[in-house]
Amino acid sequence: MQTKLLDYIPSEAHAQVEALLSQTNIVVKVKKERKTKHGDYRPLPNGKHQITVNGNLNPYRFLITLVHEIAHFKAFDTYGRFIKPHGKEWKHTFQYLMLPFLRPEVFPVDLLPLLAKHFKNPKASSDTDATLALALKQFDEPNNKNYVFEVNFNQRFKLYNNRVFIRGNKRRKRFECVEENTGKIYLFNPNAEVEIL
Length: 197
What we know:
Blueprint: H1 3-6, H2 14-22, E1 26-31, E2 39-43, E3 49-54, H3 59-79, H4 88-98, H5 112-118, H6 130-137, E4 146-147, E5 156-158, E6 164-170, E7 175-179, E8 185-188, E9 193-196
Parallel strand pairs: 1-3
Antiparallel strand pairs: 2-3, 4-9, 5-6, 5-9, 6-7, 7-8
Helix pairs in contact: 3-4
């Protein structure tokens, strides 16, 4: 395995990740930041498999994303190509693969209860679990962004792509926000990072 990949994950997880990847014909590539995803998995025409993970993730999110994508490979390999990408087979595989990592030598102790709760029924993205996503973000490099839940009602903010929104009411979990140019309403997770105007 490339030493560079190990630089992105907690050192206490190195041996387990090496063991996971040694059993497969997976190529792992570290990519520049992509705003819409942390990583992905796909089979290659040559019979190998490729996983990409964003290199800007903190070590804990990087590890979770890497194992998430390995779980896609293992689920498809075990159950076949016709399963749902984030269905019960993938969830079971992801839980099984993550369990050995859920210990205080790998993750900070305050994250473990949140991870344990999340992995009872893992979602397609850890960002949809707002509590876990916010806890993981404390290990990110500091930036000058705010979260949508910190934006005041009727306050303007913009996204990374310079689209401007006005924060509206909170629904059950997400916030209604109106795009200024189009008047369309979008729902934002409370932990979406934005720039207040």
